[in-house]
What does this fold into?
Amino acid sequence: MKQAFSDILIPELTLFKKGKVRNVFELEDKLLVIATDRISAFDFILPSLIPDKGKILTQLSYFWFDYTQLVCPNHVITADVNKFPPVLQKYREMLDKRTMLVKKTSVVPVECVVRGYLSGSGWKEYKTTGKTSGVKLPVGLKESDRLEDPIFTPSTKAEAGHDLNISFKDMQKLIGASLATKIKKVSLALYQKASLHALSRGIIIADTKFEFGLDKDDLILVDEIFTPDSSRFWPLATYAPGKGQPSLDKQFVRDYLESTSWDKQSPPPPLPEDIIQKTSEKYFEIYRLLTGKNEL
It folds into this structure.
């Protein structure tokens, strides 16, 4: 039975931040980012764990950071536990595959979303307003339709509760026109490069989100990229617009929770064992398809 980790603490290090999935520790002028096997949905951390999820998120992000580094530099120093400082070596078995040592940056307070297809909150907003984050879209689009050109739809980066979609003008006001324009250009370029690779592997990246930081004046890609937690992945072979698509991402868990009587206000229920197993399988399958690797 694979061991799943709900929490990982390093007593010798100071906890910098604890997110829904990741624990981040300070290590001098660097950060140690550890992905646990926690899973969240609808702004709640679920009581169930997904075995190997943290390893998959880390290894898939590491693959993409390497693949896209010519588009935008990233915060990764190393994901090789053998190259971690001596203080961490006694935790190597626990940290292996699920941990990255990264540069510490000043994080830009915006979620940078790129949509190539109309789904999720973008679809809901379009049905009501004909727009998504202030971007006017053609009349008559159906759910899951491919957009003629990918669109950049930023949102606020909420510490608690929902991120809120904002217009690009709002983003410019928030962080400055020059930085906002650069981030938009880089985000669209990242999406284009990754989407072409994914399509060659039979996968559609419907939408995705990025986070950026500043290392002095340099724009740096941070957090995670093109993972099942940050992206919608659809099998190309079964793609059929006009309805929701089968997913190889966290949407599977959201769909299950939507089918229950949970009110999304009270603490969420545990996931059944078969949903845990299928979620773990979906995460590994997208890792295998995108990287071409059959093991972590």
User: Anything to note?
Assistant: The mean pLDDT is 95. The chain has two domains: 14-104, 107-257.
